[in-house]
Predict the structure.
Amino acid sequence: MAEPQYFPDLECIGNLQWSGVKAGSTITGTLRVQNIGDPTSELYWNIDSYPDWGTWTFDPDHGDALTPEDGGTTVDVTIVAPPDKNTEFTGEVKVINANDPSDYKIIPVKLETPRNKALYINILERILEKFPNAFPLLKIILGI
């Protein structure tokens, strides 16, 4: 007896990648969940998992009876970035078909917080205070 053929119903599209995010700030993004199954089929889906860094909110975080004819659902994603500066955070958001957990999509996530520029300026100022004759040498090294 032949195995039944599997056809996924869930499609999920989105780009959750940010750089230059101020630590602790709130950022937003979107995902699009669609039913790509047979006409008039109903998809029940939910957000199964997401990274454990930051504070995440999904609106909506699940959907009921989504048909291909509905065209899809836009999910608004809000994240409060972690307080860590100069850090790259990665992970994934997993969206599953609630009636068939083997039917899922993974959306990669990446968030980068910038270095604290004031810290580097402060260090440079201290070096120049201690070594005032280093400025001409520094100009030569940097080509300015």
